[in-house]
Amino acid sequence: MAACPDRCSGHIHIGPSHTERIEQGAAPLTDLSVRPVQRLPHPPFRLPLLGDLLTVRPGRPTQAAMRDARRLGPIYERLIINYPIVIVSGVDLLAEINNQEHWAKNLSPLFRLMRPVARDGLFTAYNDEPNWQTAHNILMPAFTQSAMRSYHQTMTDTAAELVDHWSEQSGRWIDVAEDTNKYTLEVIGRCGFSTGFDSFTRAHTDEHPFVAAMTRSLRFINRNANLPPAVHKFPRNRAAQHANDVAFAKKIVDDVIAARRSEDPYSTRDLLGLMLNSTDPATGNALDEKNIRHQILTFLVAGHETSAGVLVFAVHFLASRPDVAARARAEVDERWPGRERPHIGYEDVAKLRYLRRVIDETMRLWPIAPGYFREAKHDTTIGDGKYHFRKGDWVFVLTLAAHRDPGWGPDHDEFDPDRFLPENLRKLDPNVRAAYKPFGTGERACIGRQFAYHEILLALAHILHTFTIEPEPGYELDVAEQISLKPRGLRLRFHHR
């Protein structure tokens, strides 16, 4: 999935770093640590000094927050030491918070940890850093219909590699999350930067050095996401390894840029070419090479991680719901009835309507970024004036809970792709529909949503056409929260039809 700038992982702790923003010349934000936003419902057994710290679940913070939302209501507060976090999941309140006139993106704690890697890339830039808007305007043509057509064959070839990889392991239990990561990394690398990582041809012990460095860096970031900044430098050997990995990844990307400058300097065939040879049509500004590096790292890290998560959840549901798999497979077989590999054209992908509903319902139940942060642009209120916020105050929007609002029906916790039939969507309360935000909201919502749908649909169509899927007996869905949500320990068998 291409970079989704208004999305974030569910690490719900403190707000933006005043020091970091001041160093960049931005105005400091309101200090919520000394001025609570509002007297709100909160978890029981609040303690002196610690506040609600003992109610935090570091491994599953947003899943715990969803359970609290069901007990405490559409808006509540969690107090960490003396720092309040306002968590909102009510769809009527979100209709106001998502209003761009009054609210903007707030950079999440996890994204601040990613700034040493991606700095002012689309995903991690502050609103007042100009390069995100410049990059957004320059890259918009990369996600038009004509551009998507140009990526289609590369995506198709990569999906075939995934299927062939699983064919070679017929009868074995397969770590699905690991292989969906390989697929989406290859897609964004090849389509975006004409650079592959040989993910399906290298031995398991012979990982591409860039991939190995970035994998370690992401683990380091995930490990620290719910820890105080004071401990981020410990143990020192891990912190040093992280710094070396970030430096190595930046050098690799700089080498890719230099090679393109030398070998094919004027091409605009991919994201890299557009960034090197295009200017912002609104201002005439170009991106400097450091920012191009930041954008490449943003897409490589965030663009593959999120799509891989959607894909692995969808495969889980297809494995655990034979009725859903049968309907989706019938849709695929109707177009490609033979057993030979399907020749899926660009126009065919949009016609896989039931499979698209499978993806939409997957992201309803398990939005890969289970929430995002919003910041008041000025003094404002929500809830018919009941809740007051000053300029700079922020809230955590808990998408994971909002997507399961009872307005979706009494079975809102169940998996049912037909919720997304047009006639069923029309019956929903408009605020319930509007709260469905798997790609974020506002001007910094995911620029690559169509790219993501296309690569996921292609992969699922190839998988269903080739295999039946056997779930592991006794497996219970265990959702890990890191940069994105993913099933933990999901193993499946793929049998040739």
Task: Outline the secondary-structure elements.
Layout: H1 18-23, H2 61-72, E1 75-80, E2 83-88, H3 91-97, E3 103-106, H4 109-118, H5 131-139, H6 145-167, E4 174-175, H7 176-193, H8 209-224, H9 236-263, H10 271-277, H11 289-320, H12 322-335, H13 346-350, H14 353-365, E5 372-376, E6 380-382, E7 387-389, E8 394-397, H15 399-402, H16 422-426, H17 430-434, H18 449-466, E9 467-471, E10 479-481, E11 485-487, E12 491-496
Parallel strand pairs: 2-8
Antiparallel strand pairs: 1-2, 3-5, 4-12, 5-8, 6-7, 9-12, 10-11
Can I get a quick summary?
The protein has 497 residues and is α+β, with helices and mostly antiparallel strands. The protein has helices at 18-23, 61-72, 91-97, 109-118, 131-139, 145-167, 176-193, 209-224, 236-263, 271-277, 289-320, 322-335, 346-350, 353-365, 399-402, 422-426, 430-434, 449-466; strands at residues 75-80, 83-88, 103-106, 174-175, 372-376, 380-382, 387-389, 394-397, 467-471, 479-481, 485-487, 491-496. The strands form four sheets. It has a five-stranded mixed β-sheet with strand order 1-2-8-5-3. The protein has a three-stranded antiparallel β-sheet with strand order 4-12-9. A two-stranded antiparallel ribbon has the order 6-7.
